[in-house]
Amino acid sequence: MAEIAFYGFSALSIGAALTILFTRNVMYAALCLFLTLLGVAALFVLAGADFLAITQILIYVGGVLVLLIFGIMLTYRPDRESNQKKNLVLTSHLNQFWGGLVALGIFGVLFWVILNANFMIIHSPQLAEFTPQRSTLRSIGVHLMTTHVWAFEVAGLLLLMALVGAAYIAAQREK
Amino acid sequence: MLPIVLLSILGLVVLFLGFQKSKNLLLPATLLVLAIVLVANFLHWNDMPSLYFKNMLFENKFTMAFSGIVIFSAFLIVALTRGFVDDESAQPAEYYTLMLFSLVGAVMMIGFENLIMLFVGIEILSVSMFILTGSDKKNLRSNEAALKYFLMGAFATGIMLFGMALLYGATGSFNLTAIKGYVMANNAPSAMLYVGLLMLLIGMLFKVSAAPFHFWTPDVYDGAPTIFTTYMSTIVKTAGFAAIYRLLSGSFSGIYSFWWMTLAVITVLTLLAGNITAVYQTSFKRMMAYSSISHAGYLLLSLTALTNQSQSAIVFYSLAYSIATISAFGVLMLVAKETGVHSYENAERFEAFNGLGKKNPLLAFVLTVSMLSLAGIPLTAGFWGKFFVFSSAADRGLTWMLVIAILMSTVGIYYYFKAIIAAYMREGELSAIKVSPFYRLILIATTIITLVFGLMPDFLKGLV
């Protein structure tokens, strides 16, 4: 049963990702991105990473994707001259040869790595606490407030900086 | 780890100072903050190397020296912003705060012990650079540069993060010492470890603009406001090289034979691409962008060698390079402002320096010393920088790379001298440029530092 779910969700993610790659319609691409992210979230659930799956849905599906669709909506200028045409936002494909070559290269390397990987769980104290039956939320919370508290704090600085930068770029000049 | 805490808190204070009507207090306040941080950085100089925040950050003389270079460079660059901020009639509080916060990222990249810290540090530095690159909002080239930098940078970050995940998968830890322990225990590294290291290095080499990941550099350095080009080509590069050195020497020195060839190929490509393309540039600013690629090549040469001397060699080289770059761009900013009233495009060409030597002997002298230092002519700090880098490569026996590096540094002399020739031998209608006393003081200081380290290199080399 778990295998059927795994292959089903994998096919969903990969199929939707390929559609993003080949479609020229930006709206379709955004909707397919939604399917891809949802499929990946399901794969996280199957791998026992419940927190990651919820975060994926909250941040990417709930936040980033809505932002993306708003972005398309607000930057799109409809063609007023011809009302007959459909309102499509189309992209064009450039540099297909080099882009394809780099992508194939990265794919080949990762494929080779995954084939050669040894997926035994490494015995380290951090991983020893991990038990797939229980929720991972508790140990993530404890680590975030103890061993990784500094990374957590500094991520706040990163967000503050992004906020200052966004306000600066969006602000109108006085003159 | 006082600098990180101080920079974060005092950065906020500077941001709040921006609420005041008068903006005159901002520059002195920022300089004061940087001076305090610089002093705080060296407070623990004589202490033993130590770990901070649950093994997240590491501090020893090497990291303190590098943080010192980064903070000192930032001090000099902020001191040169005076004219820039007047022109822009912008919100200087935001500029200064972003600069201070970006230094937090730089210091974290230098002192990381955990790969998570490296990642957050690189992100902080990069995000602030994306914003500062596009800060000249009315200039189309600045916008283009920011967008290009952002897209390429995001892609490189993705690759780097993938590399970190693979390293974690292979070794079971993000900690440098733990990774070193794993590498020592398992003599033949797995495919996962090797590819993880490679992807992590690609991401970091992108940030220091090594070939073949340098394609963004000329456009971004050319399009960004000159003051932030200076910032990028000194601070981002210095912190990036410190991070690569920490990573390679801290975790992977045990499997030197597995990665040195990859790094050697990248080094040679960087040296060739940077120096040969720089010859054909007509814009001084674009030439400096390519020259920064070539300097990345010399620093990579020392990293490829990775001997006991590499550490002090890259400290010295980074300092010499940063100081010379700051004074060169400092002169360019003055000259471009003077000539660029009508034609912005031509202001940054070599011809802008024509006749500089007649009316502005001080500026011409500062430019000459910085060019000589970048070219690696004796009696300047740049010569000793190159000397230490080359001697560390010679210790490892990398003779063929050494030959290429020396050939390329002679090519470098050609394009650096183009600026000197323009300043002294060409006729031009450049009038005397009014330089504020403070600006003059900074330029004289950078020139004196370059000359002093050129005469007495042991002074600094003995410290680290």
TrEMBL record, chain A:
Biological role stated in the UniProt entry: NDH-1 shuttles electrons from NADH, via FMN and iron-sulfur (Fe-S) centers, to quinones in the respiratory chain. Couples the redox reaction to proton translocation (for every two electrons transferred, four hydrogen ions are translocated across the cytoplasmic membrane), and thus conserves the redox energy in a proton gradient.
Family as reported in the entry's similarity comment: Belongs to the complex I subunit 6 family.
EC number in record: 7.1.1.-
Catalytic activity: a quinone + NADH + 5 H(+)(in) = a quinol + NAD(+) + 4 H(+)(out)
Membrane spanning residue stretches: 6-23, 30-51, 57-76, 97-115, 149-171
Any GO molecular function: quinone binding
Official protein name in the record: NADH-quinone oxidoreductase subunit J
Pfam families: Oxidored_q3 (PF00499)
Lipid metabolism keyword on record: no
PANTHER family per the UniProt record, alphabetical: NADH-UBIQUINONE OXIDOREDUCTASE CHAIN 6
Keywords tagged on the record: Cell membrane, Membrane, NAD, Quinone, Transmembrane, Transmembrane helix
Topological type in the membrane: Multi-pass membrane protein
Organism whose genome encodes this protein: Runella aurantiaca
Annotated GO CC locations: plasma membrane
Signal peptide: none
Compartments where found: Cell membrane
Gene3D superfamilies xrefs: NADH-ubiquinone/plastoquinone oxidoreductase chain 6, subunit NuoJ (1.20.120.1200)
TrEMBL record, chain B:
Principal subcellular localisation of the protein: membrane
Cell membrane found in the keyword field: yes
GO annotation terms (biological process): ATP synthesis coupled electron transport
InterPro entries named among the record's database cross-references: NADH-Q_OxRdtase_suN/2 (IPR010096), ND/Mrp_TM (IPR001750)
Top EC class of this enzyme: translocase
Domain of life: Bacteria
GO molecular function: NADH dehydrogenase (quinone) (non-electrogenic) activity; NADH dehydrogenase (ubiquinone) activity; quinone binding
Catalytic activity: a quinone + NADH + 5 H(+)(in) = a quinol + NAD(+) + 4 H(+)(out)
Transmembrane spans: 26-43, 64-85, 97-125, 146-171, 191-216, 228-248, 254-276, 314-336, 362-385, 397-417, 438-456
Record-linked Pfam families: Proton_antipo_M
UniProt keyword list: Cell membrane, Membrane, NAD, Quinone, Translocase, Transmembrane, Transmembrane helix, Transport
Subunit organization: NDH-1 is composed of 14 different subunits. Subunits NuoA, H, J, K, L, M, N constitute the membrane sector of the complex.
Family from the record: Belongs to the complex I subunit 2 family.
Listed name of the protein: NADH-quinone oxidoreductase subunit N
Higher taxonomy: Bacteria, Pseudomonadati, Bacteroidota, Cytophagia, Cytophagales
Gene assigned in the entry: nuoN
